[in-house]
Amino acid sequence: MLALEGAVEIPGIRISLPYEEEEVPEELPEAVYLLPTVVAPKLALKGLLVFSKEDKIFHLVQQACNRREVDISIARTLEATTEKLTTGPDIYHLIVIDGRYPNFLDAAEIAKAIRLTEGYNCATIVALVKRSFFESDATMTAFLDAGVNTCIVECYHLPYLNMELKQIISTTVKHYSIISTQEVLYTALNRIKDVLIITDNKFVIQYVNQAAAHLLGVLQKEPTKKHLSEYFVSDLTQWINALKPKDLTGDKPLDFAGTVLIKGKTLESTSFPVRARQLACYGRITTHLIFNVDVPVISQGDSSIASSHTRDFRGSFAAARRSSDLKGIPTESRRASAAKLAAMPLEAPITKIINLLSQLHENCSTDEAHLIDRVLDFLKYESLYSPQMKDIQMEDPIATELIGALITGSNVHSSRRSSNDSTIRTAVTRPTASLISTMKAAPLIMDSLKESLSWEFDIFRFEKITEKRPLLYLGMEIFDKFKVFTSMRMDQTVFKNWFLAVESRYHAQNAYHNSTHAADVLQAIGVFLSHFSKKEMSMDCLEESSALIAAVVHDIDHPGRSSAYLCNSNNPLAILYNDVTVLENHHAAYFFKLTLCDDSVNIFKNLEPDIYKSMRNIIIDMILATEMTRHFEHLAKFVSVFGGEMNCNKEIAAIEEDSALLMRRMLIKVADVSNPSRPYLFCVEWAQRIAEEYFQQTEEEKTQNMPIVMPMFDRCTCSIPKSQIGFIEYIVMDMLLAWDNFIDMPELITYTRNNLEMWKHLEEEGVRTIADVKRSCCYGLPTYSNGKSNSNAI
Ligand SMILES: Nc1ncnc2c1ncn2[C@@H]1O[C@@H]2COP(=O)(O)O[C@H]2[C@H]1O
């Protein structure tokens, strides 16, 4: 806490007398100079002489400068001057411009340029002029208007120049240095956490620092010129009497301390210990009062009030407690910490929440106060949105294990094993575009693409007819529909190259995390975006492009193993990303590396840097949002913003940036796990594919003698229906309900409910393995993995 009696004095008040120690005049009142002061630094003066030529006067000025110990540099032109000010290592306190020959040097123009240079508002500028100039009002006014501080007349008499320079240094140069020092002090006052208010001797507020403005809940300028009684609501009579302007001679300046009821915009009237001190800036009469409000600090793990003034104030603060505060120590400490929070120069939404709850706490019943106490306790947790596994009560161990692994990233063991890179399949080589098959398939592909924005789009048939390149064809189609090429001012060929490169970096051998999954997520986002426009909601075109790009790349180079597996096997990616969000970090970084490495695939190349930067931010944020460990956090935040009645006419672009961020995250999250909300056969196919990938991981963990992330996912024993019931009920359904409320797509809910019923039915029938599920899929109905398809089976 700032101790008024022993440390910094208020700038502009105490340091307005810039005397160096040996210069302090005898008659200065004792009470004044006994107080500590902040003295402007004793400057090692640097000067700049702006002279076009070195004539006799130049040499005289130079000698005078040497005499006054001004270390000088020389500039001959305007350009040289600005270069010295902007690039040189020195700061010039004094600049003398030769204004005698306007044809060679325009002193006014140079002065203006100096004033415009950052940091030179406090330099002293002197113009050396001919006597005729000096006597011309117009010329002098022009100089002063340009920022010249003073003019001296051309004179060949060295003692005259010496005296002029001495006067200028001891007045203007030194005062400027004091003003700079004051700026430092005001900055310090503004930043400290102590609450300071300065009034004149009539209690009219002159200044409040930031902490005071925060405490009062006002803008910093607002209280200026208002009477202190607008904020100090206690009767101030006693204060006014005690603090009446006094002759300070001989006396120590008077302090006054007591408890004052203070009210602010966001602060209920609250008692605070306040101490005041009088100051005399001119003469001996009090001219200013400094009020220091003591906002108590709570020491760690202790509810006692601990500030540097605690002892002085504890009694009065405690006595001022209101009866409702007698609910226990936590209330007092909470009030104190709320007040402390309010006084801090930073403000987060959580600060406002805590303040509001604390205010509520003051005026409620004991039961309600207990509930608010519990809420405030919860608000202290850092992992506010992280679900605790114990809160999720699932009867089925398969579901428990799956959800646990997804949302907590659990079963990450610190492995003693050395890394075994062979278990992570590396990227497949880039395929060469098979023109012939593409051409043969083209009519089928083109026909299929007519449905590219339908929720019933048959992605598995598309996978087949594109010879496992669904991402390229669907991507080009959807990007074209959403005018991504135009928005990003990029040739389609570059996009085609890019899709080829990206698709080749998806591992075709992965059962689930391959380019068909990426194409499916892209397609889902395409459908959602088209729904936005149907509902008259729209996203900015670059935001839309970013969302589509994020979908395309969100699982690029996925190894077909989970992040937990990578951590357990000490995979280099886990090492690189410190076991945190390993896969998603890798997808984002890998995508940017791939895209920026070569102009032939650089889809960002024609964007302005700031546009590229914001697209990059959006894409990275969306990819990272697909990490399931933060699933409930994203969902809870989304619901808290968009959970109510949706105003469909609202422009998404007009939604606050924070909310738009939540919306984009939910857009990709829903798309990423929307497979249970697709038509029945597709839902089953996805369930088989993900289960296959989980089984392969479990098998590998067993053979490698590694920790097993999901032991239940054993090919021989696992019940696919049970895993799907758990996945839908605990992960997917709530999210889809929230999303449907936002986007109005009831078909998502209908399909999911039907599929859930179907899984429950299969479960009751005793269907367990992939083979069972395949068999059960309406006999004879072809499955996609054997190459045949029948979209009527939906
Ligand atoms: N139908 C499903 N059944 C079980 N888990 C799924 C299903 N669909 C997606 N997932 C999981 O949800 C995760 C979402 O993020 P990932 O794509 O990294 O990995 C996905 C799978 O682990």
Automatic annotation (TrEMBL):
Q: What is this protein called?
A: 3',5'-cyclic-AMP phosphodiesterase
What's the superkingdom here? Eukaryota
The family note in this entry says: Belongs to the cyclic nucleotide phosphodiesterase family. PDE8 subfamily.
Which Gene3D superfamilies did the record assign?
3'5'-cyclic nucleotide phosphodiesterase, catalytic domain, PAS domain
Provide the alphabetized UniProt keywords.
Answer: cAMP, Hydrolase, Metal-binding
Cited InterPro entries: HD/PDEase_dom (IPR003607), PAS (IPR000014), PAS-like_dom_sf (IPR035965), PAS_4 (IPR013656), PDE8-like_REC_N (IPR057304), PDEase (IPR023088), PDEase_catalytic_dom (IPR002073), PDEase_catalytic_dom_sf (IPR036971)
SUPFAM superfamilies for the chain: HD-domain/PDEase-like, PYP-like sensor domain (PAS domain)
Q: What class of enzyme is it?
A: hydrolase
Q: Name one GO molecular function term.
A: 3',5'-cyclic-AMP phosphodiesterase activity
Task: Tell me its cofactors.
Answer: a divalent metal cation
Q: Which residues form the PDEase domain?
A: 428-766
Positions binding AMP in this chain are 513-517, 555, 672, 724
Q: For this entry, list what GO says about its biological process.
A: signal transduction
Residues annotated as transmembrane: none
Residues bound to Zn(2+) 2 are: 555
- EC number, as in UniProt: 3.1.4.53
List the active-site residues: 513 (proton donor)
Metabolic or biological pathway, per its Swiss-Prot or TrEMBL entry: Purine metabolism; 3',5'-cyclic AMP degradation; AMP from 3',5'-cyclic AMP: step 1/1
Query: What Pfam families does the record tag this protein with?
Result: PAS_4, PDE8A_N, PDEase_I
Q: Which PROSITE patterns match?
A: PAS, PDEASE_I_2
Provide the organism lineage as a comma list.
Eukaryota, Metazoa, Ecdysozoa, Arthropoda, Hexapoda
